[in-house]
Design a protein that fits this description.
This protein has 191 residues and is of the alpha+beta class. The protein has helices spanning 2-6, 50-72, 91-97, 101-105, 115-131, 170-190; strands at residues 10-18, 21-33, 39-48, 76-80, 86-89, 133-141, 147-156, 162-168. The N and C termini lie far apart (100 Å). The model has no long low-confidence stretch (mean pLDDT 91).
């Protein structure tokens, strides 16, 4: 064996198919030497790690599933630290902002707020930290300088980071503005 040839301890996993199902064993082999340094015996210890392996596999699958939810979410998801620096963003956030993930992670919340929304955006951020959640509608500024209307829902995470879900509502705002204009015109005719 490799343990005898190398003269060094060896640890490896073995999988066995038994009538009761698959079992995974962690085995350690250690060479014992006589007074002349020759290997005379191997001492081996095996431990059934099936349950811990299943738990690790389940945890990995859960993490992968949750990450896919984050990655494929239709809304922009922005996670910021308590100073307002972005720490994690999903692809939808990049698409709606025009920034790459690396560029967004170099920014902070005020960088994404045009002047007319800065006070409201920072107030929403502070409210989220104080109350644990918040929501609002405001203009956000893309990388190219253009703006878009966004609905934001925010929450304070257990690790003291702030998560923001951002939906582009520019189309809805345009329809509302047109409806308001039409109503104003109708009111003029009514008098």
């Amino acid at each position: 064996t490799d343990c005898v040839n190398s003269g060094k301890p060896l640890t490896f996993e073995e999988t066995h198919l038994l009538p009761t199902g698959k079992q995974v064993w962690l085995t350690s082999l250690n060479p014992l030497r006589d007074e002349h340094g020759s290997i005379t015996t191997l001492i081996g210890i095996s431990r059934d790690i099936t349950e811990s392996r299943q738990q690790a596999d389940h945890l990995r699958e859960s993490r992968e599933r949750l990450f896919s939810y984050f990655t494929f979410a239709p809304l922009g998801i922005y996670i910021a630290d308590l100073e307002g620096r972005y720490r994690l963003v999903n692809p939808a956030a990049c698409q709606q902002s025009g920034y790459t993930a690396e560029e967004l992670l170099a920014l902070s919340i005020p960088d994404y707020l045009p002047g007319e929304s800065r006070d409201a955006g920072l107030a929403l951020f502070r409210r989220t930290i104080e109350n644990g959640r918040g929501h609002g509608e405001m203009l956000l500024q893309r990388k190219d300088g253009s703006t878009f209307w966004a609905a934001l829902a925010t929450g304070l995470l257990p690790d003291n980071r702030v998560i923001g879900y951002v939906e582009d509502i520019s189309e809805r705002k345009a329809i509302e503005a047109e409806l308001h204009r039409s109503n104003s015109e109708l009111e003029q005719f009514a008098y």
